[in-house]
Design goal:
The complex is a heterodimer of chains A (about 220) and B (about 425). By secondary structure, chain A is of the alpha/beta class. Chain A is about 35% helix and about 25% strand. In chain A, strand 9 and strand 10 form a beta hairpin. The radius of gyration of chain A is 17 Å and the shape is globular. A 6-stranded mixed barrel of chain B has the order 2-3-8-5-7-6, surrounded by 4 helices. The longest helix of chain B has about 40 residues.
Chain lengths: ~220, ~425
């Protein structure tokens, strides 16, 4: 169950074309904890969105579990994201009208693989595993920044995804919370999940098992493979 | 509860005040649609009922819709023949063989017919003249084709049989002339025949045109007044099933050639006014519903803008564009359906209030506004409002479905 990029290129069309990602080859095995770092505008987030099927490459291919995905229709990519990917962003993007528990249940309800009771139990278990089980009934505006990000991680794990993709997940957190979030990612990778985190924090990136550095849309270093 | 419905409800409950205002707009539109159209419908039904009840369903007159074909035309069907200044064959107008025709009509099941001689008579009293359409009738047959017997408020229709010089006047006309039963008036016809007539009855139909401009005398008296002995120029017909009037009129016309006008044709102008009124009402109230639709569009558009981040995360999680659109269409649907339900109550309440309002200009002081509200009118109002709400939700929903989550996720970073 690998996630693989072959000759991945993303160019924004327009009067002045902007190359976000250029000819990237990358193969990420299950259980790897990959930190993608680089200066601002280096294309690390763009690479993450391409790997997570949120964006469509201009050229190249993304193999999810060995199957090509670049030519998939939007709905098929949405279904694949729902079943195989979990996303965590810098901003938590929790639905403000729903409680933490309901937010975590959201992807499960969309997928429909679990009965409502089982989905609720799994959501509760995920929140407890992230030490926020007692916050399950609270809405996002009643939680701290660190708690919201943990809820977002729990939501990303709701459908037991093979790939967890995080884009600057610690960008809005203090150092203690940031370290805790990276600790969670390490644990998830140890459990066999593929974790890819984009970060500008080189210190945190060093704690990952593999470090990919980007510059001007190119992968300039790939360490720890 | 389905997920899309749960999200839609959460959005609407998150903006309670705006949702309530939108719903109120729909409710008022639906309510006024129901009440106003119900009132107009009630008036139309009453008026149609009165027209049908007071008048014959078909009137056969001594006219032809098309001029009779000239023998020359028949002889040279393919030739260009023009005949000018054709004189009527029969200068004394009237229905030929009216007795045989009445017998033929009487043989048709569900048809009652009465002979009439219609003619203008100048009624004179106290130095003033009133031009009145006088109908010479056969009282025994007349009661089978019009509601004259039940419209009598003084005297009886049978008095025309007992009093050869008797006349029955409309209530308004009698009031204007200042006469009551037993009083005498002078009548002068266009053929200069003069007769002294005695008022033997007064009728009131509620239709001003009849009550102020029509009178009845015995058929023989009218034939004498008009100097047209044994002439009948109208046969008035009543049907057991009024809905067959057009079909039956066509049948009669094809059989006897004389023009047979169903009540719909006789009252075409009135019915055209009703149609025009309906167009105005439906347009006005339809405009209210469209305005309500703009309110819903406004609220849901605002929700779409406000919830851009939610839409982005839902799409990144794996919601399809169609399922995102469904959320906002459901929001429109909820506002439309709940607004319609409230509107039904508003409409019913207004209709009940209108039922208690005295009818302006009614001759009966106890007469209140008539409101007719069949169930289909509620269904129509609710259906239109819901459709308007769904369309109003669908337009911003399309935009939501096309949202590129990356633009929002990048913007939030």
């Amino acid at each position: 169950m690998t996630l693989e990029a072959r000759g991945l290129t993303r160019i924004l069309p327009g009067p002045v074309q902007q190359v976000l990602v250029r000819d990237v080859d990358l193969s990420i095995a299950p259980g790897e904890f990959v930190a993608v770092s680089g200066p601002s505008g280096s294309g690390k987030s763009s690479l993450l969105y391409l790997l997570g099927l949120l964006d469509v490459p201009t050229a190249g291919e993304i193999l999810v579990d060995g199957a090509p995905s670049a030519a998939l229709a939007e709905d098929a990519r949405a279904s694949l994201r729902l079943a195989r990917f979990g996303f965590v962003f810098q901003f938590h993007f929790l639905l403000p009208e729903f409680s933490a528990l309901e937010n975590v249940r959201l992807p499960m309800r969309r997928l429909g693989a679990l009965a409502p009771e089982a989905a609720a139990a799994r959501a509760r278990a995920l929140l407890e595993s992230l030490d926020i089980g007692d916050q399950a009934g609270k809405r996002p505006d009643q939680l701290s920044g660190g708690q919201r990000q943990r809820v977002a991680i729990a939501r990303a794990l709701a459908n037991d995804p093979a790939y967890l993709l995080a884009d600057e997940p610690t960008g809005a957190l203090d150092s203690a919370n940031a370290a805790a979030v990276f600790g969670i990612f390490r644990t998830l990778a140890r459990e066999g999940r593929t974790v890819i985190v984009v970060t500008h924090d080189e210190g945190l990136a060093q704690t990952a098992s593999r470090r990919v550095r980007m510059k001007d849309g190119l992968v300039v270093a790939d360490e720890g493979t | 509860m389905p997920l899309t419905l749960a999200v839609a409800l959460a959005h609407l409950l998150g903006r309670r005040r705006q949702t309530a205002v939108s719903m109120l707009g729909v409710a008022l539109g639906v309510g006024f649609f129901i009440a106003i159209s119900g009132m107009m419908n009630g008036f139309h039904e009453f008026f149609r009922g009165e027209l049908i009840e007071s008048n014959p369903h078909i009137v056969v007159t001594d006219e032809f819709r098309l001029p009779a074909e000239q023998p020359l035309h028949a002889q040279h069907a393919d030739a260009a023949v023009e005949i000018r200044r054709v004189l009527p064959r029969d200068p004394v107008r009237g229905i030929n063989h009216a007795a045989e025709m009445l017998e033929g009509l009487a043989a048709i099941p569900g048809v009652a017919a009465a002979p009439t001689l219609r003619g203008q008579v100048l009624l004179r009293r106290a130095g003033r003249d009133w031009s009145v359409a006088v109908l010479g009738i056969d009282p025994d047959r007349e009661v089978q084709v019009t509601s004259l017997a039940s419209d009598m408020i003084a005297g009886t229709i049978d008095a025309l049989k007992a009093t050869p010089d008797g006349i029955i006047l409309g209530k308004t006309l009698a009031d204007r002339m200042g006469v009551e039963v037993g009083d005498a008036v002078n009548g002068v016809s266009r053929s200069a025949q003069v007769a002294r007539l005695r008022v033997v009855g007064i009728f009131k139909t509620g239709l001003e045109a009849l009550d102020s401009g029509q009178a009845f005398v015995g058929l023989r008296k009218q034939q004498s007044l008009q100097d047209r002995p044994r002439i009948v120029n109208e046969i008035r017909i009543r049907l057991d099933d009024v809905s067959r009037s057009i079909e039956m009129a066509a049948l009669i016309e094809s059989r006897w050639s004389y023009k047979a006008a169903p009540w719909e044709e006789t009252n075409a102008r009135v019915l055209a006014v009703f149609t025009l009124q309906n167009v105005i009402i439906y347009s006005t109230v339809g405009a209210i519903l469209i305005v309500a639709g703009f309110g819903i569009f406004n609220v849901i558009s605002t929700v779409v803008l406000e919830k851009a981040r939610d839409i982005a995360i839902m799409k990144s999680i794996g919601f399809s564009g169609a399922s995102i659109a469904r959320i906002f269409v459901i929001e429109g649907l909820i506002v439309g359906v709940l607004g319609s339900l409230v509107g039904f109550c508003v409409g019913f309440g207004i209709a009940e209030a209108l039922r208690a309002v005295p009818a302006p200009g009614a001759t009966d002081p106890n007469q209140t506004l008539l409101v007719s509200l069949p169930a289909w009118r509620y269904a129509l109002a609710g259906g239109l409002a819901t459709l308007s709400a769904v369309v109003a939700g669908w337009l911003p929903a399309r935009r939501a479905a096309r949202t590129n989550p990356l633009e929002i996720i990048r913007g939030a970073a």
